[in-house]
Specification:
The structure holds two protein chains of two kinds. Helices cover 34% and strands 17% of the residues of chain A. Chain A is α/β, with parallel strands linked by helices. The longest helix of chain A has 16 residues. By secondary structure, chain B is α/β, with parallel strands linked by helices. Chain B is globular, with a radius of gyration of 25 Å. Classes of the chains: A alpha/beta, B alpha/beta. Bound molecules: thiamine diphosphate and iron/sulfur cluster (SF4).
Chain lengths: 263, 533
């Protein structure tokens, strides 16, 4: 099945979103079952991805990817639902939804295009921008410390928490496949350089490493690993699965075998 | 023939439940009932009361004056004595009053629980009205699954503690009795609703409670998400996936849903929104009534939006119009709105529901390439859902026929026009439906224009004074084709809000308004009318 659409891609050349698009398409292809796949996006540069992949999609509004995706999943649990959101989208405008999606362990996957900036609105600081970040709205530097979304998601009850890098398509594809296959709420924080407003390619290439021999079922160890890098400068940045456990999912518990689409 | 009974007590005394049981007893005898529940936003203490009105004719509201006051606390006497046309029954362990005292609390405790006090009074009320004990026993047995023997003893004690004052016999068969909120839930189910999503907010909460407790027999799924923003967006996701979904809230929660109203319009996703109005603005008086969200709901969301807003005035209309709102939402792929208020939501009515059914939306035939937003004659594109053979691309962004983002002027204009075109066809359909009701003396040169729950009082007063009443059932699109015919001569708008919102929309100058959180009673409205007629 051809996953390309006729839409003209309008990301800046060199944008990290291209890596995410390629990895996502490869993962969707490998996972198969395309006609049962639904992708949902928010609003931001990242969100355009739904136009570029030829599967069912819903282009939702800023911050609301988790509830839109949850609605789709609850309406028809046979569907395979993947959300694509920005860091502004998921960790700012709609953080409450992300936390509740994790708390409920709804069986969807969230891929966060974390460029640590509000890009589409031309470069303001975001919830994961480093402290002191100089953007259009913070010319003297942001005074806020960033969130550590990995820690936040583990604490919120997500049962699959991973980090990847848009510059490593192979790793990202694997993470997406693992996340989608995981039964429960999976979230992948994808470090995504924004060529135009926050070019972090070199920084990530120099400072990331892959998690090895990490016991991802141990919550304490997962938090320890997450704390190696607090989204400020300094520290090595682990990539891979931080945390993964099995728990009953929200859709299973709430629907008890019912499928509203077929009711 | 009609009677009214007021039962008053503290929150926690079970006044509401006792009122409902009394209504059920009279329903068994074949009478029409109406129950008004007045309560404060607190869980213990304060003052609650129910007015149960019984009539051999259809009734849609309560009256100020009552034939029997039942006082479980002293406040009931202090606050409501002015209403008394007949006797006062009171708990002599707690209340000082003239009338018929029953040592209910001490007796109830002696019988095993202070909760039996209400059953004692139900017995007393039944005897007062000369109702056959066996009928009352049946209702009590159905109402209380626990402590059945104790309840029967309490009932007998109450029944034997006074003489009968009236002799009410069975005049017909019982009807169904439902609150407005239950009627909305059932109407939606009748039109194919499979999912109801809500965040608790009085006076809409009991839609969620009712559906949650009837999930299995009504074949619906209920969901309570983190807030109203999630509620509305989940509904969009569910509707996009092909499931008829409704959401419900009050004004404050509906304010949070506004971005989603716009998303429904742009993405052409059908969702039914219920706004049960409370006294506002903002938190206002949470458990009291007002009709002040009319302009807000009619204009909700940003951008140009084709929508339907129905404004039922009683439980039967709530049932029918909610079903219509669901069917119209899916036929036209638009957001639709059920605008009611506390006086309908939480009051209990005798009902005979009309027939409703799920009317099918325009579905894709499965041939060729699927275009979610295909241009058509009436602006309505055939629907397909993810998981079917089609690739379905829904979007909040301006788009081409496939649902792919566009921003150029020509395509944007065309798509905007496609959406707006639906209104023309919608109005055509509405013209064949009942959109306005007219009551009373059609030849009167005075017309009362009203909407929603206020119609109950208007109809009664109009009957007494020989006036005409006009009630639009749809407030968007406003059925001018009908209203134009009926709004002639002197028109007085009657609404429960402080500005006269429907009057503004129809440019009616003369207004009788009420905005203290309490609905009009026929007595009060009559007085207000007589001042100006
Ligand atoms: C309710 C609302 N507020 C603000 C905006 C404007 N807006 C569009 S994108 C965006 C931020 C985008 O940041 P992010 O989610 O990180 O996505 P990116 O563009 O970086 O991919 C904002 C604030 C909006 N569309 N909706
Ligand atoms: S602004 Fe940044 S995130 Fe947006 S397309 Fe350009 S490079 Fe990518």
């Amino acid at each position: 099945m051809n996953l390309n659409t006729n839409a003209k891609i309008t990301w800046c050349p060199g944008c990290g979103n291209f890596g995410i698009l390629t990895a996502a398409k490869n993962a969707i292809e490998e996972l198969g079952n395309n006609e049962k796949t639904v992708i949902v996006s928010g609003i931001g540069c990242h969100a355009k991805i739904v136009d570029y992949i030829n599967v069912n999609s819903f282009y939702s509004i800023h911050g609301r990817v988790p509830p839109t995706a949850t609605g789709v999943k609850l309406a028809n649990p046979d569907l395979n639902v993947i959300g694509f959101a920005g860091d502004g989208d998921a960790y700012g405008e709609g953080l409450e939804h992300l936390i509740f999606a994790a708390k409920r362990n709804i069986n969807i996957t969230m891929i966060i295009h974390d460029n640590r900036i509000y890009a589409l609105t031309t470069g303001q600081f975001s919830p994961t921008s480093p402290e002191g970040f100089k953007g259009k709205s913070t010319p003297k530097g942001s005074v806020e410390e960033p969130f550590n979304p990995i820690k936040l998601m583990i604490a919120s009850g997500a049962t699959f928490v991973a980090r990847s890098f848009a510059g490593d398509i192979k790793h990202l594809k694997e993470m997406i496949i693992e996340g989608v296959k995981h039964k429960g709420f999976s979230v992948i924080d994808v470090l995504q350089p924004c060529i135009t407003f926050f070019n972090t390619y070199d920084y990530y290439r120099q400072n990331t490493y892959k998690l090895e021999n990490h016991n991802f079922t141990d919550e304490k160890k997962a938090i320890e690993k997450a704390e190696e890098w607090n989204y400020n400068d300094g520290g090595k940045i682990p990539l891979g699965i931080f945390y993964k456990v099995d728990k009953p999912t929200y859709d299973e518990l709430l629907l008890k075998g019912r499928n509203p689409r077929k009711m | 023939m009609e009677f009214s009974i007021l039962i008053g007590g503290e929150a926690g005394d079970g006044v509401k439940q006792a009122g409902l049981i009394v209504a059920k007893i009279f329903n068994e005898l074949g009478y029409h009932i109406f129950v008004y529940d007045d309560y404060q936003s607190l869980v213990r203490g304060g003052h609650n009361f129910s007015i149960i009105r019984i009539s051999d004719e259809k009734i849609l509201t309560h009256k100020d004056h009552v034939d029997l006051i039942v006082a479980l606390n002293q406040d009931t006497i202090e606050k409501h004595f002015w209403r008394a046309k007949g006797d006062v029954l009171f708990d002599s362990n707690k209340v000082k009053s003239e009338g018929i005292g029953i040592p209910a609390l001490s007796k109830a405790k002696e019988m095993g629980s202070h909760l039996l006090r209400n059953t004692i009074f139900i017995g007393a009320i039944s005897k007062y009205f000369g109702i056959d004990l066996s009928i009352v026993e049946d209702v009590i047995k159905k109402s209380f699954k626990k402590m059945q023997k104790e309840n029967m003893d309490a009932l007998k004690f109450g029944y034997d503690s006074l003489d009968e004052k009236h002799k009410i016999d069975k005049i017909g068969e019982p009807r169904e009795i439902h609150s407005g909120n239950e009627s909305i839930a059932l109407g939606a189910v009748g039109a194919g609703m499979k999912m109801y999503i809500a965040y608790p907010m009085t006076p809409a909460s009991s839609i969620l409670h009712y559906l949650a407790s009837h999930e299995d027999d009504l074949n619906v799924v209920t969901v309570q998400p983190e807030n109203e923003i999630a509620v509305a967006t989940m509904a969009v996701g569910a509707a996009y996936a092909g499931v008829r979904t409704m959401v419900g809230t009050s004004g404050g929660g509906f304010a949070l849903m506004n971005e989603t109203v716009s998303m429904c319009a742009q993405s052409e996703t059908p969702v039914v929104f219920v706004d049960s109005q409370r006294a506002g603005p903002s938190t206002g008086i949470p458990t009291y009534q007002m009709q002040a969200d009319l302009k807000f709901v009619v204009n909700s969301g940003h951008g140009d939006i084709v929508r339907v807003v129905v404004a039922p005035g009683d439980a039967e209309e709530s049932y029918l119009l909610t079903a219509n709102a669901m069917n119209l939402a899916w036929k036209y792929q638009i957001p639709t709105f059920v605008l009611i208020d506390k006086h309908i939501s939480e009051s209990t009515f005798s009902v005979e529901f009309p027939e409703v059914k799920k009317e099918e939306a325009k579905l894709w035939d499965g041939n060729g390439d699927y275009k979610r937003y295909e241009f058509t004659e009436d602006g309505i594109s055939p629907l397909a859902f993810p998981g079917d053979k089609a690739i379905v691309k829904g979007t909040s962004y301006e788009h081409d026929e496939y649902g792919i983002t566009i921003e150029d002027a020509e395509s944007a204009k065309k798509m905007q026009e496609k959406r707006m075109k639906k209104r023309e066809f919608l109005i055509k359909e509405l013209k064949n439906m009942e959109t306005v009701k007219v009551y009373g003396n059609e030849n009167s040169d005075v017309t009362l224009l009203t909407w929603g729950s206020t119609k109950g009082a208007c109809i009664e007063v109009a009957k007494e004074l020989g006036l005409k009443v006009v009630q639009p059932l749809y407030v968007e699109p406003l059925p001018m084709w009908e209203l134009g015919k009926h709004l002639r001569g002197r028109v007085i708008a009657v609404e429960c809000n402080a500005s006269g919102q429907l009057a503004d929309m129809l440019d009616i100058k003369e207004r009788i308004l009420k905005y203290d959180g309490r609905p009009f009673t026929p007595e009060e409205l009559k007085k207000r009318l007589e001042e100006i007629l």
